[in-house]
Amino acid sequence: MRVTQNSIASSVLTALQSNISRLGATQQHLSSGRQLMRPSDSPAGTVSALEMRSQVTANKQYARNVEDGLGWLGAADGALQASSSELSRVRQIALQGLSSGAVGDANSREALALEVESIRDTIMGFANTTYLDRPVFGGTSSDTYAFKPDGTHNGSTGQVIRQISAGTSVRVDVDGAKIFGNGTGGVYEVLTTVADKLRKNPGALQGELARLDAVATTIQSGLSTVGSRYAQMEKMKQVADDAVLSLSGSLAEVESIDLPKTITDLQLQQTAYQAALAAGARVVQSSLVDFLR
Amino acid sequence: MSTFNGISTALTSLYANRRGMEVTAHNIANVNTPGYTRQRPNLQAIAGPAIPGLTSQASPVGDGVIVESVQRLRDIFLESRGRMEHAAAEYLGTQQTQLGRIEQTFAEPSDEALQAQLDEMWASFSDLSLRPNSTASRSAVLSRATIVADTMRGNADQLATQWDTGLSELRAMVLEVNSTTAAVAQLNEGIMAASAVGQQPNDLMDQRDVLVMRLSELTGAKGVPQENGVTDVLLNGSVLVSGNSSRNIAPPTGALSLDAVKGGDLVALRFDEGPNYPSAAPDSGRIAAMMQTLNHTIRTYSDGFDRVASELITSVNTQHALGRDADGTPGGAFFGGTNASDITVALTDPNDIAAADAGATAGPLDGTNAQALAKLATKKDGPNERYRELIVNLGVAAQTVNRRVEIQAGVVTQSDAEREGDAGVSLDEEMTNMIQYERAYQAAARVISTVDTMLDTLINGMGR
After folding, report:
1. Deepest in the core among A215, A277, B123, B439, taking most CB within 10 A?
2. DSSP string, B255-298
3. Comparison of pLDDT for A204 and B224, the residue scoring more
4. Radius of gyration over every alpha carbon of chain B, rounded to an integer in angstroms
5. For every one of its 293 residues, what pLDDT tens digit does chain A have, with 9 covering 90 and above?
6. B-chain residues within 8 Å CB-CB of A36?
7. DSSP letter, residue B352
8. Is the peptide bond before A135 cis (omega within 30 degrees of 0)?
């Protein structure tokens, strides 16, 4: 093939152009810290970057949902624990009243009855525990209390549900009507009856002991349900946090540059560019003109 | 035999070598002229009569040398291949630019573009499910959704603007084609006139070929060399330039906006010749790529984006209607509009967001429906999935074109190097020729002075 000065010059120019455009691209990657600038850089990488970004956002949201759920369950757990220990005190008082019997001092029985009533009010206070102004035993009620002063349940039957992973949602409220009861057989009614019988008919307290035990068992079972949900949520929080970490890592792997590799590439391309410049300068310079006198 | 024949033979050599030197000078002068083709004097010996007469006195040697022609050394096959490759490179380059602009419109992947905004909107729905009674959460949903709607309208608007800019570019290119064809026809006329009187209009041909190359880059037009040195130009099979006459292409007709293209109208090019206005559709080059962009490419991504928007509108509105707002009434339309260019957030009062389930058991502070709205993020064929599909399709198309552009650039470089190598001026060669002509000129002059000495011997030295 015939070669002329101009064809050499233009091929040198083309080579320099492609060298410097590679250099420019690497420089852009380095200065932005990203290797995925636009979808065409890697369509597959782009779509996984988009998906991972969505999942990072979703998992952060799950972690927030879990955080909120733990608040609800923690509040319920505390209320149930305290109620349970208060109930065992009531059982002691009932036994005390039963053993002293009708012959016992009416004044001391009155004192016991008063204590039972105050415990009853304390437990109803626990049953009205709120988390962020919402009663944890009141379902989706918009009121700030779950039980009225007379012990009837005021809450809604709607459940408070938290989405804690793509496929799992957990109930974070506790059905107050089921745990504390509503009307006959409920904590309020049982404790009121116990106090009443302490005053008037301590001998009949034997029958109330079984009812007290039933109430305590219900609260215990509520406590274990709340406990297991709490544990599940804590586990899911760990899962969501781990997912955010590992997804952010993978996202960086897809989108961001490998710094040592990119810097090495830059060095190599600079060397290549300089070599091309030097070679071009030598080749383009000379022609027969230089050697004719 | 004539006594003075030697002098006139040497004289033809002086003339011929001087002409050779002139051609060399012309070549060297134009070493950097774009499109210049190197020229070469074709020397021919002046022979004696081919069939000598019976009593011929002619000498058996010839009568010197003559410059038979000055040849223009350009290979028409390399040239037509070069035009084809340049046209293809321009076609792909224009597609690359246009797809690049669409990529810039969507600006994915990034922490700020639409995907991230959609994700934040879904998250705000989920946040609302935690606190259905919080006005702050409700307002957050509305503002996130407004950002999404604004971005979608903004992107749709950018696509429409890109279309409008493309049409203006197409208009300008058509004007350039018309002025170039007129110039080619004019040069053809000059070439015809010069050829008719036996001149060699090599430099006019060079200028003409530069213009034909420009036509090829714009439209993929092909040059067809004719007998008398003129080149006709064919546009996708129709005559664009024939000898000294050229045809005008009318400004683009048909669709005048992206919406018109989406309605089924297309941009078309026609010759400006009533009443039929025959079609003038280029098959390659920048104009063909621009028409492809206007009639198909932008439309494809605009339609795809509309599908994302309409899926977002219907899926959110459908789920929203299943819920109950803060006042207990069923959810109304959340998004208004039907596609990406008219999507809006229809709700204005944060309390109108239907966060609660409409079921009888759900209490006033239920957040089930808000969570169901958040779950639309992972819906099969939902807005997120459709958007990702759009972006990956765009990425694959742009990547394919980018690769083809790179390959074509290599082909063009190769073909240009061959053309330049074939037709370009080599300074080494010109220097060599210069020395040859110089030496030959010196030698011919020497012949004349030698013959002169011989005559001096004959005239002045004899008979003393």
Report:
1. A215
2. --SHHHHHTT--EE-BBS-TTT--B---SSHHHHHHHHIIIIIH
3. B224
4. 38
5. 788 888 888 888 888 998 999 999 999 999 999 888 899 999 999 999 999 999 999 999 999 999 999 999 999 999 999 999 999 999 999 998 888 776 668 888 889 899 999 999 999 999 999 999 899 998 888 888 999 988 889 888 888 999 999 888 999 999 999 999 888 888 999 999 999 998 888 888 888 899 999 999 999 999 999 999 999 999 999 999 999 999 999 999 888 999 999 999 999 999 999 998 998 888 777 778 888 87
6. 109
7. G
8. no
Cβ density class B423-443: b for 16+ within 10 Å, e for less:
bbbbbebbbebbeebeebbee
Distance from CA of A267 to the nearest CA of B (A): 23
Question: Is the pLDDT assigned to residue B59 strictly greater than 80?
Answer: no
- For residue A148, give the 3-state DSSP assignment: coil
In this structure, are residues A270 and A19 in contact, taking their beta carbons and an 8 Å threshold? no
Quote the pTM value. Answer: 0.87
CA R_g for chain A: 39
CB crowding B204-242: b at 16 or more within 10 Å, else e: bbbbbbbbbbbbbbbbbbbbbeeeebbbbbebbeeebbb
pLDDT of residue A280: 84
3-state helix vs strand vs coil in chain A, percent to 5 = 75, 5, 20
CA–CA gap between residue B239 and residue B219 (Å, rounded): 13
**What's A202's DSSP letter?**
G
Residues of B in contact with A52 (CB under 8 A): none
Q: Angle CA(B378)–CA(B381)–CA(B384) in degrees, nearest 5?
A: 50
* Beta pairing class for B356-357 and B323-324: antiparallel
A270 C-beta neighbours (distance < 10 Å), count = 14
Q: Is the dihedral of CA B88, B90, B91, B93 positive or negative?
A: positive
Q: Are B184 and B208 in contact (CB under 8 A)?
A: yes
Of A10, A46, A51, the CB nearest to B420: A10
Contact B174, B269 (CB under 8 A): yes
Dihedral pair phi/psi, residue B255, rounded to 5°? -60, 140
Quick one: which H or E segment has residue B23? helix B5-29
* Chain A residues with beta carbon closer than 8 angstroms to that of B297: none
Per-residue buried b or exposed e for A219-232, using 16+ beta carbons within 10 Å of the residue's own CB: beebbebbeebbeb
Q: Does residue B1 register a pLDDT over 60?
A: no
ipTM for the predicted complex: 0.86
* Pair of tokens at residue B58: 């002619």
* Mean pLDDT to the nearest integer, B237-250: 94
B366, B391, B425 member nearest A46 (Cβ):
B391
